[in-house]
Design goal:
Length: 348
């Protein structure tokens, strides 16, 4: 394995490196924060090398108004920094500024099979009944996602539950590339899906994922919501009339109640078991205000910081540009070696 370094854990032979991404197709939600961002910060704090990417090329697989996309990208960068991502320690950048993502995605388009992509549930959900009218980019989306992680020889990818299938595909693509070209070049990534909030559900329907694209704003908490809005959304969240049980088994058939318990646990950094033990017997008239108070105490400072950072957009652009340069220094040699492996002539 010529390109390998020695690694204590993760993909054998590769030094541990964390990469993850979020689409700037809207604002950050509590689902993004608990399922992804908070865990990105934990990875950064663990001392491992971390790269975090605002995947603007992924965002345009469905129509985005250009001015809104630009604004959302900057606001999301502010959201990352406000949540604890330190651009000096993590590499924070937007995808379109590092050309190697799109370059490797093309090569991987030629490795992945139509059938593999056709099975992706996210494509089926997003394309809906009108598949013929979906963009080619939406179909090929998982190849770009595989390129995002592979172009850095990433070993670990923290994500929420909904990205599991895409990362399994990225593993298949890496294995097929290594096999077809008889190399041991790309690591097979490890999805990291951990904690109480790998699937935060809608506040209006406990069987649906909380999402930035849900038409109802009451279904989600946005990182840009102020304290009053956060409290209102939690007060109005759908629940049932029963009090909280003493153990998690008692929540099995109560998706809305289970969701609020999970959110509480993830915000407070405790287990869902501890939440039900502490609040057993309480009705939602008592539990919701406690949850609202906790949510506001965690999220209001982040909201304030986003507003402060957004007052200096030039500084955000500078941070993203600097991150992109550092990302490119890792990606470029890996891309060049990939071209070499597949047989492209390169100027020396
Ligand atoms: P995206 O932008 O939909 O979501 C970003 C991250 O937030 C997590 N997430 C959630 N976690 C818990 N509960 C929720 N309700 C919830 N909603 C979103 C997602 O699981 C994800 O971790 N395809 C990816 C972006 C991407 C990417 C990558 C991720 C592109 N390239 C490479 C990792 C590595 C996406 O659309 O995420």
């Amino acid at each position: 394995m010529t390109d390998a370094q020695t690694a204590p854990d993760g993909a054998p032979g590769f030094a541990p490196r964390v990469f993850s991404g979020i689409q700037p197709s809207g604002g950050l939600t509590l689902g993004n924060y608990l399922g992804a961002l908070k865990r990105f910060v934990a990875a950064q704090e663990s001392g491992v090398e971390t790269l975090y990417c605002l995947v603007d090329l992924h965002a345009i697989t469905v129509w985005q108004d250009p001015a809104r996309l630009r604004h959302a990208t900057r606001e999301m960068a502010a959201g990352f920094i406000a949540s604890g991502i330190d651009p000096a320690r993590s590499i924070l950048f937007n995808q379109s500024q590092v050309g190697a993502h799109a370059e490797l995605a093309w090569v991987l388009n030629c490795v992945a099979r139509m059938g593999w992509l056709g099975r992706m549930t996210q494509f089926k959900d997003k394309a809906g009944k009108n598949r013929e009218n979906a963009s080619v980019g939406l179909f090929a989306y998982p190849c770009l996602m595989a390129a995002d992680v592979m172009v850095y020889h990433t070993t670990h990818v923290p994500v929420g539950e909904d990205q599991k299938q895409h990362l399994e595909l990225a593993r298949e693509i890496a294995i097929k590339f290594n096999h077809d070209y008889e190399v041991d070049f790309f690591p097979v990534v490890e999805p990291v899906i951990e904690g109480a909030a790998t699937r935060v559900m809608s506040l209006r329907d406990g069987t649906k994922k909380m999402s930035k694209s849900d038409p109802s704003d009451m279904s989600r908490i946005n990182l840009t919501d102020d304290a009053d809005t956060i409290s209102l959304k939690i007060r109005k969240a759908r629940t049932d009339p029963e009090p909280l049980p003493g153990d998690l088994a008692g929540l099995a058939e109560r998706p809305e109640a289970r969701n609020l318990v999970n959110i509480y646990a993830a915000l407070a950094d405790i287990t869902p078991e501890a939440v039900v033990a502490d609040h057993a017997g309480q009705g939602f008239g008592t539990f919701k205000p406690a949850l609202a108070e906790l949510a506001v105490s965690v999220l209001a400072p982040i909201n304030d910081e986003i507003n402060r950072l957004m007052a200096d957009v030039a500084e955000i652009d500078r941070i993203l540009g600097d991150g992109a340069q550092r990302a490119d220094m890792i990606a470029r040699p890996i891309m060049e070696r990939t071209y070499d492996i597949v047989g492209m002539v390169r100027a020396r």
